[in-house]
């Protein structure tokens, strides 16, 4: 049995749980409540992760894994037949680059959101937030280029991360309306989000 410190709105937690479902180990994970926050440290998380961030996975022996990339690879190693991380070769590097693309989109989107939600209004820096959204737009353009080759069945870590990233934009940035300019990515995402692992992990407010 594993324990996962989580937040129900975190796209990185969703990424981990999608991998857990695809690896067939989701029912072995106990969810531990936490209050992850970019300003206020939660001692429940900090006791296992010095960064006090979610997701943090606590193994049966008490050791903790953190950063979604590490946790996802650990879960994939438990079920190599799922094919979440391809063996060494060109496909693996492509998938890892797609994971970095999705994570980069999420990093920029979260910074843009925190500028409005975590920083007092008198200290908010509009140009900084706009710069993060430029990164989001550039990532969307790249996903659009890659969309024809993205899988909707038997996904790897690349597609999982991109699917969670686009889902986060729907959840937190509906005003971006990313589908209007990215029909290929929109078509792929519409099919990908029907996967049971994606449906079981939809973000929600606590």
From TrEMBL:
CDD domains: GST_C_6 (cd03205), GST_N_3 (cd03049)
InterPro entries for this protein: Glutathione-S-Trfase_C_sf, Glutathione_S-Trfase_N, Thioredoxin-like_sf
UniProt xrefs under Pfam families: GST_C_2, GST_N_2
Protein keywords: Transferase
Gene Ontology biological process terms in this record: glutathione metabolic process; L-phenylalanine catabolic process
Domain GST N-terminal stretches: 1-83
Molecular functions per Gene Ontology: glutathione transferase activity; maleylacetoacetate isomerase activity
Protein name: Glutathione S-transferase
Organism: Achromobacter spanius
Taxonomic classification: Bacteria, Pseudomonadati, Pseudomonadota, Betaproteobacteria, Burkholderiales
